[in-house]
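Handout, page 2. Input:
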Amino acid sequence: MQLQQCGSLQYYTFDSLSQFQGLQHGAFTRHGGDSQGVWHSLNLSKVAGDAPEAVHANLAAVAAVFNAAPADLTSVWLVHGNHILEAGAGAKGAPLGQADGVITHIPGVPLLMRSADCVPVLVYDPEHRAVGLAHAGWRGTLSGATYNLVQRMIQVYGSRPEALIAGIGPSIGPCCYQVGPEVVAAVRQNFTAADTLLPLQRDGSYHFDLWQANARWLKQAHVGSVEHSGQCTACQVHDWFSHRQEYGKTGRFGLVAMLI
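Output:
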């Protein structure tokens, strides 16, 4: 990923996607916004306890990078599942409903996926001019939210998996994501060769590799190209919001993608 600057905002773009003139995208760091306190400073969530006027200003700043209005940002109400919704004609704007993924083929619709440790995934179809975002925490990862995103694009737009380009955005890494026995059991139940996703620590605990788990789903879906950000939100809490590292008192950063 490459660091970009727009005014006070800092965001990263995927190398593999930056070559396409028909797509704008960015994973926005926590820098350059109006929020104060634990939400410092580019918090994009209205439900994290932040001052509404600060969140609106932050959303407006992000939207402006895409020459859009804050009301144009299109998202879903995250429920840690695997349901994917389509933003069709006239769907620009408010949350579409409960889901953990959104797709569109409409230019000028900026899709927004919020996160603070969960994995944000971007999938682009340069052939059919379509794009999608998914949100995968441990529950969404186990239930295949990323896989379902690809399948939905195949179903709705006729996407060829081998032509798709995916980016796995900043999220909590295998270095920091310690999980309990119930998650370990669920991973072993849902993945073959699960121990490669559960690095054993010196203290006897297990960590869950969300990056590789979601990369596996993309491989299973036969996606042609997958790029990893390699950025751990818990390690790099100075740049990203981290629910785990900040004990739940934090904001949400955003991954945005828009067809042009």
